[in-house]
Amino acid sequence: MKRYEVEPHAIDRAIERFGQPAHNAKNHLIQLMQTAVFNGVTGGTGKHKTCRVFDHYASRTRLIVAKNSDTIVTVYSMDSVKGGAHAQEIATTGILSDAIMTTIRRELRKAHATFRRSYRQYNLRLADLNVEIAELFRNKVRCKHPGTQAIIQAQIDVLEDEARAIKNAMQTQEQEYRAVEGEAKAFLGEEVSETVAI
User: Fold this and answer.
1) Higher confidence at residue 134 or residue 13?
2) How far, in Å, CA of 54 to CA of 68, rounded?
């Protein structure tokens, strides 16, 4: 988990604007930053002349982070600011977010289709291997000569090794896909669940 510094002002705003308990506010902001999405740069105040804007869409929280350090400067609700430059910034961000969300949905559908196709090919190859192993095992049982049985067992061992390698590849591929799915869920929210059902 990436660590962020949190200014006292940001902690105060988290308590005031989001009702976070004082003892939990800092950790809550750090947790939000783990899945927040970078959304541009904005002018700062005081010692922070320029800041980065991160949005946590699931909680509708906007986090302002110092440009040259991982320090959370302040935090506010994406829905609460009305009027002035912030309203224009939110409106522009909303348009960008719709385009980004559409792109993420499309790429997730593509990733899901690729994953499903590849996973099916792996399963078919695994089924073929199991049939070959079963036939070899039957031949081994029918055979009476120990030397021939040893040769058949060596062939079975090779096929079983290949089957294990395929199962490992399937597991790795599923973990990678689930990681992508998790990132998309963090950005898009629960609407992902229907799209990615396997």
Assistant:
1) 134
2) 14
For 2, the token pair is 């990436």
Instruction: With beta carbons less than 8 A apart as the criterion, state whether 17 and 77 touch.
Output: yes
Convert the pLDDT of each residue in 44-70 to its tens digit: 556 766 788 888 888 888 888 888 888
Closest residue by Cα to residue 119 from 50, 193, 174: 174
DSSP 36: -
Residue type (1 letter), 198: I
Inter-residue contact 189 to 152 (CB < 8 Å): no
Hey, is 5 helix, strand or coil? strand
Residue 36 corresponds to which tokens in the numbers above?
């927040």
Continuous H helices in the chain:
8-18, 25-35, 84-142, 146-188, 192-195
Phi, psi dihedrals of residue 27, rounded to the nearest 5°: -60, -35
